[in-house]
Amino acid sequence: MRNVSFGLLVVLTLAVFWIPLTTLIKFSFQQEHYSHIILIPLISAALLVLERKRIFPRVEPNRLVGSALLGTGVLFYLLGPRKSASLSVNDQLSVAILAFVVIVIGGFVLCYGHRTGRSALFPLLFLFLMVPIPDYLLNRVIAWLQTGSAEVSEAIFELIGVPLFRTGFIFSLLGVTIEIAEQCSGIRSSLALLITSLLAGHFMLQSVWAKAALTLATLPLLIVKNGIRIVSLSLLSIYVDPRFLSGSLHHQGGMVFFILALILLAPVLWLLQRAERSRRTSASLHA
Fold it and tell me: How many helices and strands, by DSSP H and E, does the chain display?
């Protein structure tokens, strides 16, 4: 009965939010930094199914907390500045999808209880990744990635002895001039790497501190990965073929450097796993 109730609530919510949700799907295909959005609810649902024995051992509906979350989501949707002329389509969509996620989480708690909600905290909070990043914050993130990538690229060029002249985001190298534009910030692969890090921490680490440490360790890798990409393409264009700066490796080669970032992240994950085992062993010896 609870599953039917939650299913009906989700269907009703989907119907109410049909327009912003279809707009969100279009965004995921049109904006490269939102290509992950369409996968988020699928991953969240898969996590609930895979971990159902841990999440649903004892279900006690909680009308108070669930109704409060539902009401918050509804009020946010009704009273939020969704159609303000001062907001972009992206920001209006952020408000609507945020309200959608809060309502879905509220419905889950209403039907299954706050204890079950705590057990399903990661899959439920994971849904917030489908909320479009507000323009102000997105621009700040892109600027951070852009600036960091430029600094890392310059450091690598100097380390390997490649002469350069830099003016802001423009690098003059041996017969080649490159600009680290906003499109070169690597925002798409950076979001993919961050999401992968969160999932890896959830499945392969147990303690909150270790999961947080893995996420924090991922942040500098976002910049290092993009710096390596910029330097690699630049060197290939100088010493192999100038067309590397405009070829497929430039436009579709993000997966190569994404895998490189995962390789760099793997030792961090291994060290955190060892630290967790050491703490458990120490705790058992002192018990």
Answer: 13, 3
